[in-house]
Amino acid sequence: MEDTQAVGSDQKNTQPGATPDMRALNDLIIKESAFIDLIKQEMKKVIIGQEHMGDRLLIALLADGHILLEGVPGLAKTLAINTLSKTVKADFSRVQFTPDLLPADLVGTTIYNAKTGEFSNKKGPLFANFVLADEINRAPAKVQSALLESMQERQVTIAEKTYPLPKPFMVLATQNPVEQEGTYPLPEAQVDRFMLKVVLDYPKREEEKLIIRNNIAAGGFPTPNQVCTPDDIVKAREVVRQIYMDEKIEKYIVDIVYATREPEEFNLGNYSRMITFGASPRASISMALAAKAYAFINHRGYVIPEDVRAVCKDVMRHRIGLSYEAEAENITAEQIINEILNIVEVP
User: Fold this and answer.
1) Sorting pLDDT into bands at 50, 70 and 90, what band is 9?
2) Which of 57, 201, 236, 260 suits a disulfide with 278, CB 3.0-4.6 Å?
3) pTM of the complete model
């Protein structure tokens, strides 16, 4: 990573919108992104199929974001997250969200020491690099809101004392879309904190055969090897932000997001009654960072429109408010996003 600072300083001295030395930047990205292929290889030892989920986990990790995985039980959501933490050799913490969970069960609490007669703060499971919030919609709003400070400010406050969280820090939440009894839907402010929302589907037939073999093999379940450290991830995040994004790509991102707010401007007036609120500026930021991270895992030093289109649904699907009319007509956020991508001019 010794070339990182040099390229970064060159870019800081250029004018906004100026094109950096693309050859030097590409060489840097190819060199610094080599460990991504190693992570993928190790994850494929354990996770059969679900490549989309694996790539999105890496995008969230490299873009310093959080990810929400939605799918029925048994699709390897928890296993994928645990496997990723082992390849990075990071601290992994799992919290099973239940209706009786308390905020102190996440952030920590103040305890009294009878011997010393003093109070001390005991840190909760949020103090880890990877925090798995399993079935996050099973806990009430007061518990969900305990995650807000950690997800946004990367810090936790216990009894008026603030503690920084370790780097890297990422919340990986799962939720089951099928059984809604006894669940608490995430409020919009909470959902918006997740950079990506990934909807998982069942594996293919051939993939499921391999899944069976892996799980009943006499040698036991494959174990992933560590291929990088948390420091490598922190350094890679700095390199990701240096990836070149042309002003036309920026405009493309803004147009996509703006089309959810003003559909009429893009000849999508029929969707104006379907959308109660459009995506926030956080969506624009997340899409730009996710597109850069996608370019990084593809060993490219610049963003192309296909990068934006590849991450668009995962960035946007949870940031569009649907009206009752849309639900009555079975109009989904994915349908609206597809229509927007078909209408908005590609640079």
Assistant:
1) very low
2) 260
3) 0.85
